[in-house]
Amino acid sequence: CLKQHGPLQRLSWARCSWLGCSSGCPALPRSFIFREVTSGKICSDQRIFDLAASPNEGFVGQNLTIFYKERLGLYPYYTRQGVAVNGGVPQNSSLSEHLARLQEGIEKYIRSSTKEGLAVIDWEEWRPVWARNWKPKDIYREASQGLVVQRHPTWPPEKVNKQAAFEFESAAQEFMVKTLRKAKSFRPKQLWGFYLFPDCYNHDYSKNKESYTGQCPDVEKSRNDQLKWLWKESMALYPSIYLDPLLDSTPNSRKFVRARVMEAMRISQKHHDDYSLPVFVYTRPTYLRKLNVLSQVGLHHWDLLIPSASSELCQLMKNYLEGDLGRYIVNVTTAAELCSTTLCQGRGRCLRQDSHADRPLFWAEGQLSSADTLFLRTHFHCHCYQGWQGSGCQTRAGPRSHAPGPLAPLGLGVLLLLASWCYPPLD
Predict the structure, then answer these.
(1) Which helix (H) or strand (E) holds 379?
(2) Among 51, 13, 45, residue whose Cα is nearest residue 32
(3) Where would I find the H helices in 138-293?
(4) Which of 19, 67, 270, 413 would be 72's cystine partner, CB 3.0–4.6 Å?
(5) Angle between helices 324-344 and 370-379 (to 10 degrees)
(6) Across the chain, what does the average pLDDT equal?
(7) CA 278 – CA 33 distance, rounded (Å)
(8) Residue 247 to residue 401: CA distance in whole angstroms
(9) Alpha-carbon distances of 375 from 121, 297, 402, rounded to whole Å
(10) Residue 71 contacts by C-beta under 8 Å, 6 or more apart in sequence?
(11) DSSP 359
């Protein structure tokens, strides 16, 4: 394993052994875990990754499953041409028919009821918070208002809007909550959650380039807190740190990413009494240079989901994965695992004491010096895995029966998507 990876030679023998196992690998508490998702050719030696998966139709029973709108039940939405599908809006759909169809989609893509993994519901057409359905999603507000007007044609616009918002948000909540509950009952070992949740909406960099702070607006943080019903039902969070080209290679990109990740971590720790939800962040390869930002905000768990390309682009990806990215993966992974072992006895992950401090967590070599150990103890502390507590995770904790199972210690992951380089977006 070490010989075949060339520049990745600092990978420990123990890690190499674990990487070489099949899809039956145990879900061990790890400081970092990597996943590759391929949609065709294999661009790279997959042994650099812990697990591999594909979003393609023919692949089932994987360690990560993405449920697009056509793969799970009867999701209501409008097409780009304005045609209603499954009722268009949640309050005009049949929830009972949707729930009856859920099992079919779940059993098709996750065949074993005991299999562990990540299950991401990718429903992007509408947002459950009424105020967040701005253009082009305002069709959902207009349709909701139209349903109210049909029943109450004499109502003034203000009353129509208030009732439409209430009906839409109530139905959206019920639709999403019951979907999660049903899915968890069918596949309880999966970490179920919705793609793009939570969001931060910190996009004011185009208007305030010089004064941009990256901070999530207070109103959006408040709206995220209003979604406590979603966080309580979710088994994991799947936000995005996709960057606008305006942010590429600018200091503002770091502010943008930091704020979105920290908001996800805030949500993950707020709505469950005895555990934090694991967080998996989506990004794109174009922005890999920004990934070191994550090592500077105390987040130490990655997952890479990489749909592969073809021909020349595939070779470029292969070179990148086994070159710069591969070295970075091994470097940061090794550092995180060494920190976990040194400070937390391997029973927790290291968090930055000051989440805004610029204290990178990586080394050129895989061994810790006494100065390195002092650096860790000065700038990091332990966030213990489920079942452990104490400053060094040295004490067993009581049982946490409601926590999300063996994969919960993952904490935070990064989902790296290459599909858009080679394939058009799914309809």
Answers:
(1) helix 370-379
(2) 51
(3) 138-151, 157-186, 218-226, 228-233, 251-270
(4) 67
(5) 80
(6) 78
(7) 12
(8) 43
(9) 40, 16, 35
(10) 105, 108, 109
(11) -
Dist CA 208 CA 332 (whole Å): 33
Look-up of token digits 């103890």: 377
Class of domain 2-60+198-233+236-422: alpha beta
Domain ranges of the chain: 2-60+198-233+236-422
DSSP, res 389 = E
215, 172 in Cβ contact below 8 A?
Answer: no
Going by C-alpha positions, the residue among 127, 302, 110 that lies closest to residue 230 is: 127
User: 307 preceded by cis ω (within 30°)?
Assistant: no
Q: What are the structure tokens assigned to 94, written together?
A: 């049949």
Q: Residue 381: phi, psi to the nearest 5?
A: -140, 170
Question: CB-based burial of residue 200 (10 Å sphere; 0-12 exposed, 13-18 middle, 19+ buried)?
Answer: buried
Query: Is residue 34 scored above 70 in pLDDT?
Result: no
Mind listing the pLDDT tens digit for each residue in 57-87?
555 656 889 999 999 999 999 999 999 999 9
Measured CA distances, 296 to 79, 199, 279, 362 (Å): 41, 20, 16, 10
Q: State the number of CA atoms in the 13 A half-sphere of 403 facing the CB.
A: 21
Q: How far apart are CA 225 and CA 223, in angstroms?
A: 5
HSE-CB at 156 with a 13 A cutoff on CA atoms is 2
Burial of 210 (0-12, 13-18, 19+ CB in 10 A): exposed
Spot the catalytic one: 70, 97, 124, 365. 124
Active site (annotated) includes residue 124 = yes
Extract the tokens encoding 336.
């995180």
Which pTM does this prediction carry? 0.80
Half-sphere exposure of 69 (CA within 13 A, CB side): 14
Task: Tell me the three state secondary structure of residue 345.
Answer: coil
Cα separation of 212 and 78, whole Å? 35
Instruction: Tell me how far apart the alpha carbons of residues 406 and 408 are, in angstroms, rounded to a whole number.
Output: 6
Rounded Cα gap, residues 37 and 415, in angstroms: 10
